[in-house]
Amino acid sequence: MTIAFNGRVAVVTGAGNGLGKSYALALAARGARVVVNDLGGAIDGSGVSGTPADAVVEEIRAAGGEAVANYDSVAEPESAANIVQTAIDAFGQVDIVINNAGIVRDKTFHKMSLEDYEFVARVHFLGSVYVTHAAYPHMRDANYGRILMVSSNSGLYGNFGQTNYSAAKMAVIGFMNTLKLEGARSNIVINALAPLAATRIAEPSGIFDTYDPELVTTDAVAAMVTYLVSEDCTDTGNIVAATAGYYSRIQIVESEGVRIDPRTEMTPDKIADLWPQIHEMRNPQPYEDGVSNLTAVMAKE
Ligand SMILES: NC(=O)c1ccc[n+]([C@@H]2O[C@H](COP(=O)([O-])OP(=O)(O)OC[C@H]3O[C@@H](n4cnc5c(N)ncnc54)[C@H](O)[C@@H]3O)[C@@H](O)[C@H]2O)c1
Questions:
Q1: Is the CB of 183 under 6 A from ligand 1?
Q2: In degrees, to the nearest 5, what angle opens at C-alpha 85 toward C-alphas 83 and 88?
Q3: What integer pLDDT is reported at residue 204 of this predicted model?
Q4: 52 CA → ligand 1 middle, Å
Q5: The pLDDT of residue 1
Q6: Residue in 25, 35, 38 to alter for ligand 1 test, most ligand atoms within 8 A of Cβ
């Protein structure tokens, strides 16, 4: 076993069920001390219960691992900070944060209340920010950190009925794109995951009528997550997919583009003529950051 977490402390949010549970179990099995956070609500975020987090802690302890439960919500700054404080109080440090807690409130946009829009964004996006914000100073002090943002192919590519969820799942990518630059100075690695697994949250979408739930396992995703938050993974700022044993890297790329002399008159008619060339994804390029993108764009003939 080369990937090990001895001496490391991990916070896994939403670890009472589904994917988070399997991340917590996998990390603990390899020596991490784990804070199993879970609010214990329904898939729409309603209700609370300590039972799911307690059950996972019990399972970890029964297998000889170390874990403590926390029942706070990621969706408020104070309670999110308390999740990290639980790690500090129990284990004295926090090395790993997996921002996994999530809910869904699916509806087409014209039927979606702004409350459902905001709440989904609050749990997925701001919840991830709140927990990371509380853990980040500890990571900087220790000159070590591993952070995982949980995105989704619904955000990366779109999914009917999920404007709230899709936007929140892309927001975590933007957050990562900048924190990867800031965190690099302190040996803090941050990556993002687009998983798929047969959990209760994915059930309403009906995809498991098409795909065998036995193939779309949480364990196949947990293997990737365990690698991404390990000391062995030093690549930062990646978006990675993990679905039924399929693993890949996803990137935002920009086409070759077209330059016309900006001193000539720019008209929408010219744009219409050039549209096929602008639209075509010729020689697509990724960029490390906004500055390198601008440098490359300004240098184009
Ligand atoms: N299952 C999939 O196919 C899939 C696909 C893409 C992304 N995801 C993402 O993976 C993550 C885990 O989802 P899952 O499929 O395991 O769902 P799940 O419902 O089984 O687990 C999510 C857990 O998060 C907890 N939670 C919800 N709100 C919380 C809050 N405010 N504070 C603390 N805990 C909270 C829930 O109680 C639940 O135990 C989510 O972010 C989800 O959006 C899942």
A1: no
A2: 125
A3: 81
A4: 12
A5: 61
A6: 38
The pLDDT value given to residue 298: 94
Query: What is the DSSP track for 243-284?
Result: ETTEEEEE---B-------TTSPP-HHHHHHHHHHHHS--S-
The one-letter code for the residue type at 232 is D
Q: What is the CATH number of the domain that holds 49?
A: 3.40.50.720
- Rounded distance, CA 280 to CA 65, Å? 53
Give domain status of residue 1, yes or no. no
Q: Are 156 and 20 in a shared domain?
A: yes
The span from the CA of 264 to the CA of 86, in Å, is 62
Q: What is the pTM of this model?
A: 0.98
Q: Whose CA is nearest to atom 32 of ligand 1?
A: 73
Q: Is residue 181 part of a domain?
A: yes
Residue 165 known to be catalytic: yes
Residues 297, 207 share a domain: no
Mean pLDDT throughout 17-22?
98
pLDDT tens-digit series, residues 68-92? 999 999 999 999 999 999 999 999 9
Per annotation, catalytic residue among 165, 211, 246, 287: 165
Residue pLDDT, tens place only, 135-175: 999 999 999 999 999 999 999 999 999 999 999 999 999 99
Measured CA to CA, the distance from residue 75 to residue 186 in angstroms comes to: 27
Same-domain status, 227 and 275: no
Side-chain half-sphere of 52: how many Cα atoms within 13 Å? 24
Beta-ladder partners of 193: 150, 240
Give the range of the structural domain holding residue 288, as residue numbers without chain letter: 253-301
Q: How large is the average pLDDT for residues 103-130?
A: 98
Number of domains in the chain: 2
Instruction: From the CA of 52, give the closest atom in ligand 1.
Output: 39
